Amino acid sequence: MAPGPSEPGKRLFAYNGGFLNARVRRILALAGHRLTTGRPGDGDAVAVWGRSPTAHRGETMAARCGVPLVRVEDAFLRSLHPGRTGAPPLGLLLDRSGVHFDSSHPSDLETMLASAALDDTVLLDRARDVIDRLRRDHLTKYCAVDPDLPLPDPGYVLVVDQTRGDASITHGAGSEELFAEMLAFARIENLGARIVIKTHPETAQGFRDGHFSEKDKDAKTILLDTPVSPWSLLEGAVAVYAVTSQMGFEAILAGHRPRIFGQPFYGGWGLTQDENPQPRRERKLTRAQLVAGALIEYPLWYDPHRDRLCEIEDTLDALAAEARAWREDRHGWIAGGMRLWKRGPLQKVFGRHRAMVFEPDPDRLVARSEGTGRRAMCWAGKLPPSLAAAAIHRVEDGLLRSRGLGADLVPPLSLVVDPEGIYYDPTRPSRLEHLIARSVDLRPSEVERARRLIARLTADGLTKYNIGSTTLPDLPRDRHVILVPGQVADDASIRLGTDAVSENAALLAWTRAENPDAFLVYKPHPDVEAGLREGAIPADDADLVLAGTDAAALLRAVDAVWTMTSTVGFEALLRGVPVTCLGTPFYAGWGLTADLGRVPARRVARPSLVQMVHAVLIGYPRYHDPVTGTPCPVEVAVDRLAAGKALPRSPLNRMLAKAQGALASQAHLWR
């Protein structure tokens, strides 16, 4: 991470209560500043919060002591909710020339946009990827927006409101009167057009008044105060009007040339229609150059999971995970088919914004969901066949699960929530199938992210459960070594995804018949090894049975994998090991495996392995950080697994796990 735009001294003196915020102090500390109070001396600096009403204290002290003044503000991508809700920022802007929204004097940002080259190919490619990522993931300053909310029919003129008294208006050549003038211009310049006035999030949440109200509505004008995605809203607009709102910046990134009535940081660079242009700004910028300066080079970005300064891409990953969780969970869940031991971990993942409600009887899920407005979810294997077509989300463990077994009551770091089917059931489409099919259109940056993930997983030897010994016996070098992974006898993926071969013994026999000279290594499923599930077999057709062995270590030593539907097959693909499928796992039928089972005709796409990995491990699951207790990107989950940090079992779960060995045939009691 490059240093911030201004680092005038180690000690930073502040006289504003806003600097008591723990996150603000932490970001400044990571940037090399030690916040304190008192009288500054040589080599020190004074910090003030933008142009806040209390900024005069620091301004006076800096002038009196002859030390630099640093103005601090929230970055342009702040958090899930506004700061007034208590949400901590994910980035800060440090400026010792001015402040980005004050057009009366050049800021560090304005100077950068006016004079920096901003022509580096790598930098501009990053900027274009940032624009695409913002639009694709619907990320904005406050990311608690829902892309699925209804919008007005396309073809409207968008007028953007702001909160009264906002400093960007006062210091950005704006005024309250300009808002009425802006609305009048929008009506005059677009005669007969529908006008949509977008209310500011803080106004919609009751924190501060805006400039428009019910009195501004008419037959052609509506107020929109729901948390719609600005990117979706901008897509349907034919024109955009703003004073100094950051949504004008987003309008530029969405392809508009917004009509601007103040002098915001993004105005005057040839990308806006300026009613009152700032004469200093003569340079013409591209959208990528504007983003390179404003979002990549200017801010200090913070990684809340690793507690470090970071690049914007890491911040986007964190925000996307947080926003996805809010969008999926904000209405609340009513959950069925959830055993008692699972409810605590599920509540931590899905109940952060509204506590989950558990319904013991899955048959009552739909009725209770409709009666409460909550979404319905059910553990995939517990959904009654009678509800297969109902609007119920299926839940399962993700494929980077934990250090330990689910049957041993170890909570997962990743879960999947599928509104269409579930990944292991090939008899019907699933969300994962759609993601894999669409993965052929991934952007280069998305492909590169998946490539880095594969490299990390293989280098660190990470798999679904991450257990077992990495010490292996010597395997013959003069024979073709095939790994045959065993599965749990009653596994749903076998029941739904196999045909002629649906038992471990039959799998071994078939593999031996097709490979009479090969050296077969049979690896029992960890749940079966632990005595927690059924599926043990004599394994007479195997040359070697390896129990208690780490899957990643074993995959490095074999030449091929033959399987029914085991996830070990997917882990083998990650490591370049050829896989033959006798069943229909989620990774079969896409041209990456030798398929001897029946493959759904709908699997016609031919993604690369890297593209599939993006769908399977990045796009499909949700990850939960056991350290911060918040949603996180896959890379953080990988960090936690590599470091041995996972969700702890409760004391009750540890006691239950010890009792399970004698009850393997009664696994339905805890699963």
Short description:
The protein contains 23 helices and 26 strands.
Q: How would you describe what is shown here?
A:
With 671 residues, the protein is of the alpha/beta class. It folds into 4 domains: 10-114, no CATH class; 133-287 and 295-303, 3-Layer(aba) Sandwich (Rossmann fold), CATH 3.40.50; 329-428, no CATH class; 438-643, Rossmann fold, CATH 3.40.50. Helices cover 32% and strands 15% of the residues. It has a 7-stranded mixed β-sheet with strand order 2-1-3-4-5-12-13, with helices on both faces. A 7-stranded mixed β-sheet has the order 15-14-16-17-18-25-26. β7, α7 and β8 (221-224) form a beta-alpha-beta unit. α4 (121-137) packs across α10 (287-297), α15 (444-460) packs across α21 (609-619) and α15 (444-460) runs parallel beside α22 (634-643). The protein is elongated.
Distance between the ends: 45 Å
- CATH architecture assignment name of the largest domain: 3-Layer(aba) Sandwich
Give the number of DSSP strands. Answer: 26
**Sheet with the most strands, sense and barrel status:** 7 strands, mixed
- Return residue spans where pLDDT drops below 50 for at least 5 consecutive residues: 1-9
Return the structural class: alpha/beta
Mean pLDDT rating: 93
Q: In CATH terms, what is the fold-level topology of the largest domain?
A: Rossmann fold
Secondary structure tally, helices: 23
Strand content: 15-25%
Structural Rg:
29 Å
Described by the principal axes of the CA atoms, the overall outline is elongated
SSE map:
Layout: E1 11-14, H1 22-30, E2 34-36, E3 45-49, H2 55-65, E4 69-74, E5 91-95, H3 108-115, H4 121-137, E6 156-160, H5 167-170, H6 176-189, E7 195-198, H7 201-204, E8 221-224, H8 230-235, E9 237-242, H9 246-253, E10 259-260, E11 273-274, H10 287-297, E12 300-303, E13 308-310, H11 312-329, E14 333-336, H12 340-350, E15 357-359, H13 365-372, E16 375-379, E17 392-397, E18 414-418, H14 431-438, H15 444-460, E19 481-485, H16 492-497, H17 504-514, E20 519-523, H18 526-529, E21 544-545, H19 551-555, E22 560-563, H20 568-574, E23 579-581, E24 594-595, H21 609-619, E25 622-624, E26 631-632, H22 634-643, H23 651-659
Parallel strand pairs: 1-2, 1-3, 3-4, 6-7, 6-9, 7-8, 9-10, 10-11, 14-15, 14-16, 16-17, 19-20, 19-22, 20-21, 22-23, 23-24
Antiparallel strand pairs: 4-5, 5-12, 12-13, 17-18, 18-25, 25-26
InterPro entries: Capsule_polysaccharide_synth (IPR007833)
Protein name: Capsular polysaccharide export protein
Organism: Palleronia salina
